[in-house]
Write a structure and sequence with these properties.
Largest sheet: 5 strands, antiparallel
Mean pLDDT: 94
Strand content: 5-15%
Order of helices and strands: HHEEEHHEEEHEEHEEHHHHH
Helix content: 25-40%
Number of strands: 10
Number of helices: 11
Low-confidence stretches: none
Structural class: alpha+beta
């Protein structure tokens, strides 16, 4: 394979997909603005397996992007970031919402869990595509939760995140598991490959086993504001269904559904994240119910009530959650997370509780605090 045909490598041989060619065509534009894409997207890219010395599956540049609208990059100072392409011809409040929560007044508030906008790159001449620059994050659950206390802190932060948005008269509009992210790199001690996080970024080997969140607390972020809306204090808070990735919202399932309040819908969706991820599971997403979380059942059942008028507000959710957690013993909070029906085993149990006793000796709280 020579350089004159590198741009036309068939997809089945590892070439660029059509959505990737957009990024290749913007490589120089983004580099001129301080953001360098991975080798795969260089305009004169020749696959590193082209000389036959390596198998394609062992080459870092063989893996395509995971989402058409986003791609990782390296900022000029060496920081890894994610770029999201935004079509300004499509009316959304994504940029307005992102700028609001990235403003000096809100950015430093510890209750703010909206992913920060580090930069916004204006479209090149003749284009309507802008780019949002954000920290490079991972799906929150990619590294498994080890204890009930670690999951409790996850619940606390995502409830706080949505409460903070609602306090600022913003409905998120798309609360779901893959819109909750975290900076997991401290758990690994090395960068993860953005397209294949089971591998190290440089493809030198598999990712290491993550450290427990108890020893290295994690901050969680809400992302994806393209369905978010800001409301004035006197505005009618109504949106026309359906919207968002959660297709089980009761208000959206009504035939010819009328406009409805997006704030109770947010409450339903964030409750459903906990319901499906920990209480009941969801077969379609390979999520299994977990042992030991029945203390959340009453609150979550109210959050996902079919009648939106009977759902608690996020202020009520946070207040009730705090009361629930205050009643839990340290033993419960330090207990391991197991699937329903799963047995831990004597060896695993000894190892787990020995580690927990070490954390107690180190005065690390059962609910990790950032």
């Amino acid at each position: 394979m020579d350089s004159t045909t590198a741009r036309d490598i068939p997809i089945e041989e590892g070439g660029l997909h059509s959505v990737e060619k957009f990024w290749r065509d913007h490589y120089e534009f983004l580099k001129d603005r301080g953001y360098t894409l991975r080798r795969r997207y260089e305009p004169d890219w020749i696959p590193s397996w082209a000389d036959g010395k390596k198998e394609r599956s062992r080459c870092e540049d063989s893996f395509a992007l995971g989402h058409a609208w986003t791609l990782d990059a390296t900022r000029s100072d060496g920081t890894y970031v994610i770029l999201k392409r935004v079509d300004l011809s499509i009316p959304t409040q994504e940029l307005v919402v992102g700028r609001l929560f990235s403003s000096p007044e809100l950015a430093t508030n510890p209750r703010n869990h909206c992913v920060p906008f580090l930069d916004i790159i204006d479209p090149k001449e003749g284009s309507t595509t802008a780019f949002i620059v954000m920290p490079l994050l991972n799906i929150a659950g990619f590294a498994p939760f080890k204890t009930i206390g670690e999951a409790v802190e996850y619940f606390r932060q995502i409830f706080e995140a949505l409460q903070f948005m609602h306090h600022n008269n913003v409905a998120h509009g798309d609360c779901k598991t893959d819109n909750i992210m975290a900076d997991l790199h401290p758990l690994y001690g090395h960068a993860l490959h953005p397209a294949l996080p089971y591998m190290r970024r440089d493809f030198s080997g598999w990712s290491s086993s993550p450290a427990p969140r108890t020893s290295k607390p994690v901050k969680y972020y809400l992302i994806d504001f393209d369905l978010s809306n800001i409301y004035g204090d006197t505005d009618a808070r109504l949106m026309t269904p359906p919207w968002g990735g959660d297709k089980s919202v009761p208000e959206h399932l009504i035939p010819n559904a009328p406009p409805c309040d997006p704030f109770p819908v947010d409450v339903y969706c964030i409750g459903n994240v906990v319901k499906q991820g920990f209480l009941d599971g969801r077969e379609l997403m390979f999520l299994k119910p977990k042992q030991g979380f029945e203390f959340m059942r009453g609150l979550i059942s109210d959050m996902v009530n079919d009648d939106p008028s009977k759902r608690p507000t996020m202020d009520e959710v946070v207040a009730r959650f705090d009361q629930i957690i205050a009643s839990l013993s340290e033993w419960t909070l330090r207990s391991p997370i197991l699937d329903v029906g799963e047995r831990f085993g004597i060896v695993n149990s000894i190892f787990h509780w020995a580690r927990q006793l070490t954390y107690v000796a180190w005065r690390l709280p059962a609910i990790p605090k950032i």
